[in-house]
Design a protein that fits this description.
InterPro entries: Dimeric_a/b-barrel, NIPSNAP, NipSnap_domain. This is NIPSNAP family protein. The protein is built from 3 helices and 4 strands. The protein has about 110 residues and is an alpha+beta fold. It has a single domain, classed as Alpha-Beta Plaits, CATH 3.30.70.100. Strands 2-3-1-4 form a 4-stranded antiparallel sheet. The longest helix has 20 residues. It is globular. The mean pLDDT is about 95.
């Protein structure tokens, strides 16, 4: 399994609106397409207004196919357009993480 690790930083005062929209609209769509939701984590100490989202995939090809299907979904397009109109996300970073040979996901 590979893990996609996405970090989002939000403009102060915008996170709660994004989080509610994501939980009620975006996450159900992503779960339909991306399948293996590993979690969403919120910063408490350190770099504030930051979340980390993690999704598991069998391979890069699996990730590519699943994300292409999601991007083609009209429900996702409507959700993401609504997210951009919130003007909440200040920065975004995505990494693909491979497990170490001794990791349970290897």
């Amino acid at each position: 399994m590979i893990v996609e690790h996405r970090t989002y930083t939000f403009r102060p005062g915008t996170f709660d609106g994004w989080l509610k929209k994501y939980e009620t609209e975006g996450l159900p769509i992503q779960k339909r397409h991306l399948n293996r939701f590993l979690g969403l984590y919120v910063s408490e100490i350190g770099h504030l207004h930051t979340t980390v989202l993690m999704w598991g995939y069998d391979s890069l090809a699996d990730r590519e196919a699943r994300r292409a299907a999601m991007y083609a979904d009209p429900d996702w397009q409507a959700f993401i357009n609504g997210v951009w109109s919130l003007n909440a996300i200040q920065s975004q970073d995505a990494m693909i993480m491979n497990p170490a040979p001794f990791s349970p996901g290897a």
